[in-house]
Fold this sequence. Notes:
By secondary structure, this protein is α/β, with parallel strands linked by helices. 45% of the residues lie in helices and 20% in strands. It contains six helices and six strands, in the order βαααβββαβαβα. The longest helix has 18 residues, at 27-44. The relative contact order is 0.20.
Amino acid sequence: xxxxxxxxxxxxxxxxxxxxxxxxxxxxxxxxxxxxxxxxxxxxxxxxxxxxxxxxxxxxxxxxxxxxxxxxxxxxxxxxxxxxxxxxxxxxxxxxxxxxxxxxxxxxxxxxxxxxxxxxxxxxxxxxxxxxxxx
Length: 135
């Protein structure tokens, strides 16, 4: 299974993450989010891609990096993360095995046309916490 996450949409729709975003300080929350998905990937063995808008990053970050097995993508200047996600879903070989984490209605419409599945960010966050809970 492949999970593609609309990164900032995930952060800003999950209250437990959003409340930690300080004034112009998204980096620590972004790193925490990537870490959560990395630990989740270790347990579930899913492929995970997190896509962020590159326009909101102050540093010149590479378009694509891998952190502990999680692929992290930043959209190119002038291209939104939404467009990157739509491009990724259009290229999926097995759309039935692809899950997109977003609340964005435009992405949802596109994803449904491609045959991929949608996971609400709050539901994904709960799934991560339950998976990573000790016990």
